[in-house]
Specification:
CATH superfamily of the largest domain: Glycogen Phosphorylase B
CATH architecture of the largest domain: 3-Layer(aba) Sandwich
Mean pLDDT: 90
CATH topology of the largest domain: Rossmann fold
Strand content: 15-25%
Shape: globular
Structural class: alpha/beta
Helix content: 25-40%
Strand order of the largest sheet: 7-6-5-8-9-10
Order of helices and strands: EEHEHEHEHEEHEHEHEH
Number of strands: 10
Number of helices: 8
Length: 287
């Protein structure tokens, strides 16, 4: 069960995450954290139930990104007034319990949009003129939908580093990368914790990659992104989540979800357009 209370008193329980009852997909966890960050002004307490040593990455993600106090406990909090819980007053299909961002969309519409923020932030190394793009190339052995076409991405990044001499590509995630991306100029790979990878997305100037957990930090933020989701992946869910332009309703300028195959020409054209728009905006701001 995932639940959150409507009260904003400092030490009240504002969220409960029971790993025995709730899917622990990292994207859903991240959305749950962000829902509570946006919905509540005063910090409270999130209780994590039934965790063990294999859940350390999940616990670290809560502690790195939530503004609320995180308590790891085996106490079932039997006396908690479940009728007062915020998420129990909202259709489950609209919240992080099902991976939906429609509740976040309603919060953003109410003026409660904030950017995800890691504490501590990830210290990216870059000069003032550099543009850093965080890249996640999903490569999952069992959940193969929207796995990256690494050959297409390698060809695309090879072209892009030749076209844009002030752009760095930083690969994140523990996915197996089968091609020598880091031998290309200005391409590096960060190997760290799950929380680090989300933090890199927040620290970078933009995001590009596949629809998977780490893109959630880009989708709810205000920086440019290009996210690929393969045709046929979560078709019914996307029909309810995206607007008539196949974008999230809260997407900002230069933020695009692509329901498409990640082919070289499309990757190059979309990321080139994203970077050109960023450069134009930067030039106007510097004028």
């Amino acid at each position: 069960m995932v639940s959150s209370a409507s009260t904003e008193l400092a030490h009240d329980i504002v969220g409960v995450w029971d790993v025995n009852q709730q899917d622990t997909r990292l994207g859903s966890v991240f959305l749950f954290i962000h829902e509570l960050n946006c919905a509540l002004d005063m910090p409270g307490k999130i209780v994590l139930l039934n965790t063990n040593e294999k859940h350390q990455a999940l616990i670290s993600l809560f502690r790195r990104f939530s503004k609320h106090h995180i308590e790891v406990s085996d106490n079932p909090y039997a006396g908690l007034q479940t009728t007062q819980l915020l998420h129990n007053q909202i259709a489950e299909s609209r919240t992080s319990r099902t991976g939906s961002m429609r509740y976040l969309d309603s919060l953003f519409t109410q003026g409660r949009r904030i950017n995800p923020l890691a504490s501590p932030a990830y210290p990216l190394k870059k000069s003032a003129k550099d543009t850093v793009i965080a890249v996640h190339l999903k490569h999952h052995l069992t959940d193969t939908q929207s796995n990256a076409n690494q050959a297409c991405w390698y060809a695309a990044v090879s072209n892009l580093v030749a076209l844009f001499d002030d752009v760095q590509f930083v690969l994140i995630g523990d996915d197996v990368i089968e091609l020598p991306f880091t031998e290309l100029p200005r391409v590096s790979r960060i190997q760290g914790s799950v929380a680090d990878y989300f933090a890199v997305v927040c620290a970078a100037d933009a995001f590009a990659g596949m629809s998977s957990a780490f893109c959630a930090a880009a989708l709810v933020g205000d920086k440019p992104y290009r996210v690929w989701k393969h045709i046929g992946h979560h078709t019914e869910i996307m029909a309810s989540e995206l607007n008539q332009h196949q974008q999230f309703p809260f997407a900002l300028d230069n933020q695009r979800m692509l329901i498409a195959w990640d082919e070289t020409d499309l990757i190059v054209s979309e990321i080139s357009a994203m970077l050109t728009t960023m450069q134009s905006l930067r030039a106007k701001q510097g004028a």
